[in-house]
Write a structure and sequence with these properties.
With about 160 residues, this protein is α/β, with parallel strands linked by helices. The protein has five helices and seven strands, in the order E-E-E-E-E-H-E-H-H-E-H-H. The two termini are about 15 Å apart.
Amino acid sequence: MRTRIVVADQSEVCFYDIEGRDAAPRPAGRLTDPQAHLHDRDFKSDAPGRVFDHAPGPGRRGATGHHSTGADDRRPRKHEAQLFARHIAEALQQAKQRHSFDRLILIAGPPFLGVLREALPAALRATVVAEVPKDLIHQDLRAVQAHLPPEALQAHLPPEA
């Protein structure tokens, strides 16, 4: 069984393939999203609109309040992370169609792991054998390997002769 290991954050992803119980993971590709490093203010979109509350009653004067109408989920960086997660899902879907792997292990920080999970189509989600909620994208391969759950690597493998 071939397992694809996905180590990601909202700006880059590294793919590793591992075959067999004792094999070492080998690099299988990398994607980056340069826009993920931008601040919200650097995107072309404006800030959410402003609402001005007026004093109650016709012709009444008094204090008014104003506040933003935007919610957290409309932040440009969050939207960019969702787009990047979809890009990762598309790359995985293409690799799956080429029979490059049978199973997936996802490794990402908790916030992005949820975004990535949501971006995966059901057929790919069914191949996920483990999720590791750690941000290891800037760690070396040895550190990534140390966090791989042994039971996920041994699941469904034929016994060694």
